[in-house]
Design brief:
Layout lengths: L1 H21 L7 H30 L14 H6 L7 H41 L4 H28 L4 H67 L4 H42 L7 H17 L6 H66 L4 H42 L3 H19 L24
Helix pairs in contact: 1-5, 1-6, 1-9, 1-11, 2-4, 2-10, 4-6, 5-6, 6-7, 6-8, 6-9, 7-9, 8-9, 9-10, 9-11
């Protein structure tokens, strides 16, 4: 029965490993596609703002200081530099706005495409039984089965005619088995929480991205085109309100997304621990104590007088130490991935603040200019050009950072596909350890994992 319990616990550790490998996998090529979507958006925004800045600084000297209308009337435009109609300024406004509108439209459609692909990936994951719900059920069922076997084993120990050393070994076995089970359940609770956190992040990131880009597209760019076409200057501050909102969202939505992920991870970890019936305290110290007590039995049991018992103690001592090794290997990989994620999150927050603040500043300034200098075309145009410099600079920084960061990451992932990373070696070693433990008990090892072990990928939102 002790060997049967160990085999069940080996299965628990294997479930955790396969869940770590198969759950929340990104669709192939997603990173490259998002790089294309994002840089088309930022490139178009950069080009549109550049046209806008050049136009405003080129034309402001040719416009009158004051007019009775909130927008330069046709007759005034016709009198400036003998322009036959308002088509040049309207055409320039069109050239400045359309690239931004098209860039956001492409990104919106890219996000929708990636969402559809992710849904298909989730369906495949669920079909193969690697989703959270199915794995939760398997882990809980196996945990209860092990718990029942441990209880039955305890009853047998109480009624069995054992010698003093045999009883000590049996009780030490029970303690080590129980703590090894708790260690695997703690490991799964962390993996479960990380999966829920990542899913929550994407569920928050996707609608926020669609909202802010749709607001920028239809609330700002389309309104500006209508304003220019109708010569209605009253619409310009309204469009700038959307620009301000979109800029504020660009700056602060990463904070919301990361807070949502952190909260979901903490809540689901506590909930899963309660569901599995384990304490919120770290299980490793208790496991190490039980392992230390069990290893000390090797000195207690005399190999000459009790060779069979001594052989059992030595073999199981190695098995229990292997459980600790397996746990530490997963813990190392997860901590490594967490550290990379922390670096990415910090970098993302800084870049979002730079870009979002530049856009927010432009929108807020344009609201002020549109109202304060509505009847002063020359001042209005010059100050609008000044406002564009802020967003122009932020967009250039954002595009350069996206190219630099994402291209390096894509090359890094490509290299990791051709050579095994440290984390891949460690996880493969964990699977080999579990197979060796199973073979030690006289049971043929399980088949290799369903997919190759990969370097843990830093979680990125649908759009930065």
């Amino acid at each position: 029965m002790t060997d049967d319990i160990i085999l069940k616990e080996i299965e628990l550790y294997r479930i955790n490993t396969n869940f770590r490998l198969e759950n929340n996998k990104s669709a192939p090529g997603r990173r490259v596609r998002m790089l294309v979507y994002q840089n088309i958006n930022y490139g178009c925004t950069f080009a549109g703002l550049m046209i806008n800045v050049i136009y405003n600084f080129q034309w402001y000297r040719r416009l009158p200081f004051h007019t009775s209308a909130k927008f330069v009337p046709k007759n005034v435009l016709a009198a400036v530099e003998h322009i036959p109609s308002q088509q040049i300024p309207v055409g320039t406004q069109f050239l400045a706005t359309m690239p931004r509108l098209v860039g956001k439209f492409i990104l919106i459609n890219g996000v929708l495409v990636e969402t559809a692909i992710a849904m298909k990936q989730k369906h495949k994951e669920k079909k193969e039984g690697f989703d959270v719900k199915a794995t939760d059920a398997r882990v809980l069922a196996l945990s209860r089965e092990i718990e029942a076997m441990l209880a039955h084993r305890g009853e047998l120990i109480m009624i069995s005619p054992l010698t003093g050393n045999e009883r000590k070994v049996a009780l030490a076995d029970s303690a080590a088995l129980s703590q090894a089970r708790n260690l695997s359940l703690q490991e799964y609770a962390k993996l479960h929480a990380n999966s829920i956190g990542a899913s929550t992040y994407n569920r928050v990131d996707t609608p926020l991205t669609l909202l802010k880009k749709s607001d920028g597209d239809f609330g700002a760019d389309v309104v500006r085109l209508i304003s220019a076409g109708n010569h209605d200057g009253a619409l310009s501050p309204i469009a700038s309100i959307s620009t301000t909102i979109s800029g504020a969202m660009s700056a602060w939505d990463p904070v919301v997304e990361l807070a949502a992920r952190g909260a979901a991870r903490a809540i689901s970890n506590r909930r899963e621990r309660r569901r599995l019936g384990i304490s919120e305290k770290d299980a490793m110290p208790a496991f190490q104590e039980s392992l230390k007590n069990y290893v000390s039995l090797e000195n207690l049991v005399d190999n000459a007088n009790e060779p069979v018992l001594a052989s059992i103690v030595q073999r199981r001592s190695e098995l229990f130490q292997s459980f600790g090794t397996a746990y530490n290997s997963m813990d190392f990989v997860n901590n490594r991935a967490t550290e990379e994620q922390r670096k990415h999150d910090k970098h993302s927050l800084i870049i979002h603040q730079i870009y979002g603040t530049s856009k927010y500043a432009r929108g807020a300034w344009l609201i002020y200019v549109g109202n304060r200098y509505a009847y002063y075309p020359r001042h209005n145009t010059f100050l609008t050009g000044c406002a564009g410099i802020s967003n122009f600079t932020g967009s250039a920084i954002r595009m350069a950072d996206t190219l630099h960061t994402d291209v390096i990451e894509i090359f890094r992932q490509h290299q990791l596909q051709s050579r095994r990373s440290v984390s891949a070696v460690i996880l493969n070693g964990r699977l080999n350890t579990l197979n060796e433990m199973q073979e030690t008990l006289g049971v043929q090892a399980s088949a290799p994992p369903r997919s190759p072990v990969k370097q843990p990928v830093v979680q990125h939102g649908i759009t930065d």
